[in-house]
Amino acid sequence: MREWRRDIHAHPELGFEEKRTSELVAAKLEGFGIEVHRGIGKTGVVGVLKNGGSRKTLGLRADMDALPIQEANTFAHRSRNDGRMHACGHDGHIAMLLGAAQHLARTRNFDGTVHFIFQPAEEGIGGARAMVEDGLFRRFPCEAIFGMHNRPGMALGRFAVRAGPMMAGGAFFDIDVIGRGAHGARPESGIDSVLVAAHIATALQSIVSRNVRPVETAVVSVTQIHGGDAYNVLPQRARLSGTARAFSTEVMELIGRNLARVAEGVAAGFGASAQTDFRAIFPPLINDANEAELAAAVCAELVGAQNVRRDPPLIMASEDFSYMLAEVPGCYINIGNGDCEGACEVHNPSYDFNDAALPYGAGFFVRLVERKLQK
Ligand SMILES: [Zn+2]
Ligand SMILES: [Zn+2]
After folding, report:
1. Which ligand is nearest to the CA of 67?
2. Taking the model in full, what pTM does it have?
3. pLDDT, average across residues 182-197
4. Which of 191, 225, 255, 299 could make an S-S bridge to 308, C-beta 3.0–4.6 Å?
């Protein structure tokens, strides 16, 4: 697994461009005697391993894409591709799932069908959705689905499993403010779109504090304001953009409705108008309570219950495995990447997946299959 992981690390590819990576995955699976389907969701790969007569099914998922980051590491397996880097540990996720596939193909200590799902483009460009829309669960039915992400700063040999909501759903928004352009010294002859945008940015902060129930968790962040090109011109238009995060579809819809109402209402109060575009990008990631229980039991079997954290805090970041979990019950867990040297945060140019975590992740997948599809 270490060899595979370092090979993949040295040849990172961006989302939907994982040609070498998905071919490597497909060739390995075929080498293990596993039936392989290529090109699902563009560069996605699915391996199918059947054993016995049971009709039970199970899906295991790993993500394959790298990031547009220039790697700062100098070790032998550093990136060979300029400006590309496995800075999120997806190289490790692939190697762990390949390791589990090889072991299960050899030992076959299960009764049913395992689908090994290698997903492209996790980093914000919709690889999970592409696979689902390409018929992933129609062609490869899964009664439950599981995945994991490494977590730097969590000790090696530790897992975190949370039932229910775990990671936030994400939305992006744009608000176009349309006023009336004028001379900067003669504001009375125009409608100042910059002033209106400033009031909207302030008023939007009332959504989380006044519209969302205080016991719910949500974020509304205006991250961009654009308008104007000159010192002495009040621009006709200004644009606000940003992101919202929430742990339920209801709260996300409430944010979207209120965002449009506040923006359009504030603009109207100034005699301007506003057009809002609010787009949900990721659903919240919600773990099934029963599958989370099983995942935690499998982790405890591997590393002892004292090394399985059952109530990790909610994560405001998003993860597109939520698309698969919205279709099929299952559980997403975190695996400790250690806090030793090199274990800096993901998306950092000095990050590297910790090879010592590989047996824990592969072991989790193997025991999960053996218990869920028990002979
Ligand atoms: Zn990432
Ligand atoms: Zn990641």
Report:
1. 1
2. 0.89
3. 98
4. 299
